[in-house]
Design goal:
The protein is α+β, with helices and mostly antiparallel strands. The chain contains nine helices and nine strands. The strands form two sheets. It has a seven-stranded mixed beta sheet with strand order 3-4-5-6-7-9-8, sandwiched between helices. Strands 1-2 form a two-stranded antiparallel ribbon.
């Protein structure tokens, strides 16, 4: 998975989990600010093109996501377009794009139901994130069989690749609805993520802020170092969805803008 979070702003991308470094202060900042704007009334200054919505991705969106990954991540961490497209064709329900009210793409969220053997191979340093084959991924029709999901990518950005915290917020608030739309069995699913380094991050620098965010969301480390050179984290999906951020009291208007192919 890839996450981009920087200076109170977020990009959560590539969760295989790839997280681009994010200042953990952004978590609390976002939670405080979301109380001030709930989709009604005057919009904050940095929300010029809100509100945002999540829509199931199509092939053009996949090409855009793959192109953005080249700009945001190191070459060894970005997934080639042909690989991502093959994953998409196997399970299109796992791919979502964040759009503003003008239809502009502001980010993406990829949640892949994968087989346990893929997790074990990443954990044992025999497979990189981008090496997952379609046989490692459940088809959309078999999502209920999955007991592992991998956050392949989560990014929320402006046109100049600057993190967009409001688009990221909308993505977080949509998680429950995405899980429901995918038909995942919440009580039996574990979520896996890998915090990776942003392209412009100094070489050799640890992604401590990304790891802190994962820990704040209840993830624990199951592998200190994978073949890509990053740790692998895990969390129970039911534990994540029980956090205050995702409860009705804190997110009662959560995914009002979530759209599936059937609704478009």
């Amino acid at each position: 998975m890839d996450w981009l979070i920087e200076n109170k702003e977020w990009i959560f991308s590539g969760i295989g989990v790839a997280i681009i470094p994010f200042c953990i202060k952004g978590v609390n900042c976002l939670l405080r600010r979301r109380r001030k704007w709930d989709g009604n009334g005057e919009e904050p200054d940095d929300l010029l093109l809100a509100p945002y919505s999540l829509q199931q991705a199509d092939e053009d969106d996949i090409r855009w996501i793959a192109l953005k990954a080249v700009d945001l991540y190191d070459k060894k961490d970005s997934v080639p377009e042909d690989v991502k497209m093959a994953w998409f064709k196997k399970n299109p329900k796992g791919f979502w794009v964040i759009k503003n009210r003008l239809g502009g793409r502001m980010g993406s969220f990829e949640l892949l139901p994968i087989k346990r053997i893929a997790i074990e191979q990443m954990k044992n340093k025999t497979m990189r994130e981008r090496d997952k084959e379609t046989d490692h991924i459940y088809s959309s029709e078999n999502n209920k069989k999955a007991d592992c999901v991998y956050i392949e990518n989560l990014m929320a950005i402006n046109n100049d690749n600057i993190p967009n915290q409001w688009a990221f917020r909308e993505c977080l608030l949509s998680v429950k609805d995405i899980v429901k739309e995918m038909g995942l069995t919440i009580d039996r699913v574990k979520v896996y993520a890998m915090p990776v380094r942003e392209f412009n991050t100094e070489k050799g620098k640890r992604c401590s802020s990304s790891e802190k965010l994962l820990q704040k969301l209840g993830f624990w480390k199951i592998a200190k170092r994978t073949k890509q050179g990053y740790p692998l984290y895990c969390a129970e999906l039911s534990d994540i969805l029980s956090l205050p951020l995702f409860t009705p009291k804190r997110a009662k208007k959560g995914v009002r803008n979530l759209k599936s192919d059937q609704e478009r």
